Description:
The structure holds 2 protein chains of 2 kinds.
Chain A: E1 22-26, E2 34-40, E3 43-54, E4 67-74, H1 89-102, E5 114-124, H2 129-143, E6 153-160, E7 163-166, H3 170-175, E8 178-185, E9 190-194, E10 197-198, H4 202-239
Parallel strand pairs in A: 4-5
Antiparallel strand pairs in A: 1-2, 2-3, 3-5, 6-7, 6-8, 8-9, 8-10
Helix pairs in contact in A: 1-2, 2-4
Chain B: H1 6-17, E1 33-37, E2 45-51, E3 54-65, E4 76-83, H2 98-113, E5 123-125, E6 129-141, H3 146-159, E7 162-169, E8 172-182, E9 189-197, E10 200-203, H4 207-210, E11 215-222, E12 227-233, H5 240-263
Parallel strand pairs in B: 4-6
Antiparallel strand pairs in B: 1-2, 2-3, 3-6, 5-6, 7-8, 9-10, 9-11, 11-12
Amino acid sequence: MIFITNGKIRDDGRKFDEIRPLKIEAGVLERADGSAYLEVGGNKILVAVYGPRESYIRRLLRPNTGVIRCRYNMAPFSVGDRKRPGPDRRSTEISKITAEALRPSLMLEGFPRSMVDVFIEIIEAEGGTRCAGITAASVALADAGVPMKDLVVACAAGKFNDEIVLDLSEKEDKEGQADLPVAMMPRSEEITLLQSDGDLTSDEFEKALDLAMEGCKQVNKVQVEALKSKYSKNIGELDS
Amino acid sequence: MNIIPEITRESITYLINNDQREDGRSFDEYRDIVIEPGIISKAEGSARVKIGKTQVIVGIKPQLGEPFPDTPNVGVLMTNGEMLPMADPSFEPGPPSEASVELARVVDRGIRESEMVDLEKLCIAPGKKVWMLFIDLHIIDFDGNLFDTATLAVLSALKNTKIPVAKMEGDEVVIDEENTMDLPIRNETAMCTFVKIGDKMILDPALSEESILEARLSIGITKSGGICAMQKGGDASLTKENILDAVKIAYSKVPDLLKKVESA
């Protein structure tokens, strides 16, 4: 670690550079071509991937490459006050940036006129759902066997009580001073998503970015384990 | 719309005509049922139910609202179904399809007509304030028989629903965040769905069976032994014998289903 641990403890008992307890499982749905389930803190997220399949939406069709389409959706019961079902401006934006965060990792040139659908369902939300959605979506894409250069992994850093902290909880997100979601491909450290809101100095920004990337690497290990454990299980079944 | 190869249709029909099913079940046998109540801590009531590989998550959220003018002292129940595009390659995002509207309405009917929830107890101030219960069905994996899966999930979710205690002080509704009350449940209900293939009625259709169905019949039965809901679907007809057979089987199955929810 490049940070000096200052020993300060956050509301939920974590250190500033500690992510919430994280669990990822690959291949949880029967019908989808690929799927993943992710829990981080109080978030519960399901992702399904279909495709590459023939693009039945003409305006999305590209004669030279496949395209990715995302749908980020929050369940009405996932939050404190019931959310009206269906897309709103926030989920529309998140759907778009999620597709753009995942696209660089995918080798869709071999699938002209096709489409990959990624459905992200927030079953329960507790801060940081867009990052968790991207992380889970990449595992689901790998589970679907979509050719990719690397996984995409996302993690947010932010500012709470004047401290730069990793992986904001719901409370830290709501009451905090800044939020900086980052997605990257860990092997090349290429960043595929970067957003920021709130108030950060340039030093703080750099610190937060470094911290978020460090968080991404931690999360990536769990992604890899999830895929390994699914596919080593399958190999075990073949042997027996 | 899923296209079923003719050969699949023929093989399933052949099996059924010979008293067999693809997955080895008998005609009146459910697939494995898994019920997990209370999986969403932010929802006041919730459950995940799997029948075979079909998976439904139900969340229940109460909201304060006004009663309908013709029933001023009764709470409001609303069921909404989302057949999520993640659940099946043919499900599309967007406004609810006919199938999802039918699903929500049939599940709603089972609950409403069985008078499972004592809606009068959800009234806070007659004509002014009542609790509205929003029941949201989330279909996440579709492998046949959504009606029974969703109804079981709703029952399980209602049974663990806790709503805040609210009372009127003057003209204001005061919600006591500290104290919650269980939902007043006075009857329970479960649903059994059959499809007709060849001349046989088959309980709990798997997706492959559902996709070649000639007709479909769902029957809601209460704990106290009443039939509270029925819905026929599909392009073909049912005979009276078909229906009576199905009802008889449903009566023998519902106690087991209710027991499964009870012990989950």
